[in-house]
Design brief:
ATP-binding, 5-stranded mixed β-sheet, 612 residues, ATP binding, ATPase_NBD, 3 domains, alpha+beta
Length: 612
């Protein structure tokens, strides 16, 4: 592997909708064996099984300081609920999906936004993410200190994984939160989760896969082979289509896709059945008053969801706490057994002591919507011309451990080989560590959007709308022209650069007042391949480069250019002053592609009507 980073350690953080964790490896480990990656095991202080991730749960006090994280946050909040003191605390779960939902609801998250805790109290989203990153960062540093390893914070490169379906605003939000948490830009990078998974899987020996045809699994990672990665987590299902390049690097050949129908959708179907049986108020009271029992009930269902065997015709038994039975009896003056017998679930559900027994036919319906949406999304990818010769599907992520989801994919795509890494739930974390050591292993991607710069060009009567006409330095100009640099759905390689030649003038007396003002290079994205103006439907401002005049004032004629450079999961926009060679840059997240530039066109950057 080439271009390996030189810091002593690479550590990766994965915030899942259900579980969060980190993994790491030393540089010497990576050089000797890239898949030799370490990750801690997490277990509740109250006892119980250990897991490679801890629940994505946070408990903050009234001053919004972090008090507990993971299992400990769940257990402490359960006690707080039993003592009816929850109003003095902030308790958050699934905070990762709150960020994604905020974007779907068209909230402006570029700086910050408010999310609500489990009881509806508002809190800064950036504070929540910052505290979560700080906790996991400190946990690793504490481990090193306890073992006298001699590693400090400056010796570590950090990678944070994000779903491939997250838009640029989500990724920039995560980047800003990491900066506030003490992980600075030159020590921080982002990797898309399905890409990280395939980076890890391609290095695994064949015995580390679950699949029928071991030779096919090996061939999946041969040069020229195309395959789909289905990263099924708790909140989202990400689908990425990849091709192995001749040198072994990975090319992303289709726009990332997927949606918020991960394993949590199955849990929600289960909760809906419980709500139909006992009523929403009863379930809410149980969650509030017996939080520990509620958490253990849902943990048990999570285990049964992942370990259910399709060939088994036995009923599924899940925990149904006695404390919930008592609340039902007090609230509705009836037993759960009587309620079931009077419901549409008679013969499908039964209870005995602290167990609920669910017939397989009903249990499998909890999976239907998630499985169907996943299959539909994969089918739409395979219909794309670039993906017609895909030969295999690799399933990773915690929800991919479910035989039900695996079976749905295998049946729908019987002509393809479907396989799962043995530790599929850790593939993303371990792959992110490998990516951190060698980011150039992912060599190219496909743009999700068209990227360009807002320009003014000489006005052409009949060709340009009159509404865009304005006068500057005695010339007629057309404003808001979308100059395309990288086009949606085209390949782009890391390091690709596109340039736009520009000039500005400050000649007439009317323009002199602007000579001390910064120039603005406004970068736009569009979901259309060939937008004409930045005001067209589907266009939005994505980043701005502010360029201050050298010496405090611009000359009468200013010559320069804007360049956009692809840099892994981000793009760098730079304005270059052709006279002084000064460079002013800004970074922003991206999903990119390329364009052809025609030299000699007369264009200008400054638009006097543009907002400051």
């Amino acid at each position: 592997m080439s271009k390996v980073k030189t810091r002593l350690v690479v550590a990766a953080i994965d915030f899942g909708s259900h579980g969060s964790g980190y993994a790491f490896s030393f540089r010497h480990q990576f050089e000797a064996n890239p898949i030799d990656v370490s990750s801690p095991m997490w277990s509740p202080e109250s006892g119980g099984d250990s897991f490679y991730k801890t629940p994505s749960a946070m408990l903050l006090d009234s001053n919004k300081s972090l008090v507990a994280f993971g299992h400990d946050a769940e257990d402490r909040y359960s006690i707080i609920c039993e003592e009816n003191e929850q109003n003095a605390w902030y308790y958050l779960k699934g905070f990762k999906m709150k960020l994604y939902r905020a974007v779907l609801e068209e909230k402006d998250i570029r700086k910050d936004f408010e999310m609500t805790d489990i009881n509806g109290k508002a809190i800064s989203a950036k504070l929540v993410i910052k505290l979560a990153i700080q906790y996991l960062r400190k946990h690793l540093l504490d481990q090193f200190e306890e073992r006298n390893i001699g590693v400090d914070a400056n010796d570590i490169d950090w990678v944070i994984t994000v779903p491939a379906i997250w838009n640029d605003a989500c990724k920039q939000f995560m980047r800003d939160a990491a900066e506030e948490a003490g992980i600075h830009g030159d020590m921080f990078s982002i990797v898309f989760e399905p890409e990280a998974a395939s980076v890890y899987a391609r290095l695994l020996p064949v015995e580390k896969f679950i699949g029928e045809n071991k030779s096919t699994i090996l061939k999946t990672f041969d040069p020229g082979t195309k395959f789909i990665v289905v990263d099924a987590g708790g909140g989202t299902v990400d689908i990425s289509t990849q091709e192995v390049a001749p040198n072994g690097e990975l090319k992303i050949i289709h726009k990332v896709c997927g949606g918020s129908w991960g394993g949590e959708m199955v849990n929600e179907k289960y909760r809906i059945v419980l709500t139909k049986l006992v009523g929403g108020p009863v379930l809410k009271q149980f969650k509030k008053e017996q939080g520990a029992d509620y958490n253990e009930m849902m943990r048990d269902f999570e285990r049964k969801k992942k370990t259910y065997k399709l060939n088994s015709q036995e009923t599924v038994n899940t925990r149904f706490p006695v404390s919930l039975k008592d609340i039902i009896a007090d609230s509705v003056d009836s037993s759960i057994e009587s309620i079931i017998n009077d419901s549409t679930f008679k013969g499908k559900i039964s209870t005995k002591r602290d167990k609920m027994f669910i017939k397989p036919d009903l249990f499998l319906t909890f999976f239907n919507e998630s499985c169907n949406l996943t299959v539909e999304e994969i089918r739409s990818v395979l219909n794309h011309p670039r993906c017609e010769d895909v030969s295999a599907i690799m399933m990773v992520g915690g929800f991919s451990e479910s035989e039900v989801l695996q079976d749905a994919v295998k049946k729908a795509f019987s002509e393809l080989d479907v396989f799962v890494p043995v530790d599929g739930g850790l593939s993303v974390l371990k792959g992110a560590v490998i990516y951190g050591h060698n980011p150039n292993i992912v060599a190219s991607r496909v743009c999700n959007y068209t990227y360009g710069v807002s320009l003014s060009v000489p006005f052409k009567t009949g060709a340009h709308p009159e509404s865009k006409r304005y006068t500057w330095d005695n010339e007629e100009w057309c404003r808001h022209v979308f100059h395309v640099c990288f086009k949606a759905d085209q390949d782009v390689k890391v390091g690709d650069i596109e340039q736009i030649e520009l000039n500005d003038t400050f000649v007439t007396s009317a323009s002199q007042c602007r000579r001390t003002h910064p120039l603005r290079a406004e970068i736009y994205i569009s979901d259309k391949p060939d937008p004409k103006f930045v005001t067209d439907e589907g266009c939005q401002k994505h980043a701005v480069i502010h360029v201050k005049p050298s010496g405090g004032q611009w000359p009468e004629q200013v010559f320069g250019w804007v360049e956009l450079k692809v840099a892994r999961t981000e793009m760098i926009g730079t304005y270059v002053n052709a006279t002084t060679k000064e460079r002013t840059s800004t970074k922003f997240e991206f999903l990119p592609s390329g364009y052809k530039f025609t030299k000699g066109e007369k264009k200008r950057l400054f638009d006097p009507a543009a907002s400051e």
